[in-house]
Amino acid sequence: MNVSAKLQLRIPKEVCKSMEVDNYTKGNFKIILKCENNTSTLIIKTNTIGSLKSTLDDFFRCLNASLETYNILK
Description:
By secondary structure, this protein is an alpha+beta fold. The chain has helices at about 15-20, 50-74; strands spanning about 5-10, 25, 30-35, 40-45.
C-alpha cells in the first residue's frame, strides 16, 4: 500500500531553509520540504500509515524546536 500526505504550512523562510536540507528519498520512502515565497509544502510518501504518522511526529517535533530557536534568536 502507498500512503502520501501533502501539507501547506506557513513557516518562516529561515526555518524552512534550515529544515529543507533534511529532504530524504530512498526507494518508496520520500520526505520533501519545498520552501516557496510565503508557503512551504511538505510532501511525504511511504508504504504504511504507521510510517506516515511516525514521520509526521518527527517532522513536527523538529519544526517546534526550530521555531523556538528562531524566536529566541529573532
